[in-house]
Write a sequence for this structure.
């Protein structure tokens, strides 16, 4: 959870923004998983979410305590709590017409994303707990996912078990085995 005292003032953030941003971009490389050409999972942690909060405060020029607290309440649910992983899922199609067509075909994709820790059962994502991100016509290009990991899964990860992430939607199937670097970064999120 991000605490108020861990945030920089707008002035201090302006001074440190470039170096902080570079650090976060490098950090995210070890927390990003590509599922095929068009789906990306960015696994969040305290640093990535704190960066989002700082950016929102900067963009919106929020400096009053009430506004800062509101941003913390909005973003803190994205920080994993030790028994789960939380990820932002991005569906990326550069061409606007193709994106519109595919978002219509991919309705429900957020409920078809899974993680499998070697030797354990597959876990499906719990999607978009904050609000509904699809309608009768299309899904959103951005979804927020939570993967609850059992004690057995967490123990297997600590013992070096492999992890595969995938999506099994009728219109989009892909999977990826996590590299040792990504697996280690995500294992560090667990209690």
């Amino acid at each position: 959870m991000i605490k108020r005292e861990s945030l920089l003032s707008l002035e201090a953030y302006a001074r440190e923004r470039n170096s902080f941003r570079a650090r976060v971009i490098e950090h995210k490389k070890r927390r990003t998983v590509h599922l095929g050409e068009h789906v990306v999972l960015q696994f969040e942690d305290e640093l990535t979410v704190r960066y989002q909060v700082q950016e929102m405060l900067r963009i919106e020029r929020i400096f009053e305590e009430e506004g800062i607290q509101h941003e913390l309440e909005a973003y803190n649910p994205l920080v994993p709590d030790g028994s789960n992983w939380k990820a932002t899922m991005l569906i990326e199609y550069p061409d606007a017409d193709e994106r519109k067509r595919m978002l219509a075909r991919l309705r429900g994709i957020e409920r078809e994303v899974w993680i499998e820790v070697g030797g354990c059962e597959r876990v499906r994502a719990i999607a978009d707990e904050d609000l509904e991100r699809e309608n009768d016509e299309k899904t959103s290009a951005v979804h927020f996912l939570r993967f609850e990991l059992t004690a057995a899964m967490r123990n297997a990860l600590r013992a070096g078990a492999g992890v595969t992430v995938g999506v099994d939607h009728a219109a989009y199937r892909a999977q990826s085995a996590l590299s040792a670097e990504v697996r280690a970064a995500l294992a560090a999120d667990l209690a």
Remarks:
- Strands lie at 32-35, 39-43, 84-91, 113-117, 122-124, 126-127, 142-148, 163-169, 172-177.
- The two ends are 14 Å apart (CA to CA).
- Helices lie at 10-29, 46-60, 65-75, 96-105, 151-158, 180-187.
- Residues 10-29 form the longest helix (20 residues).
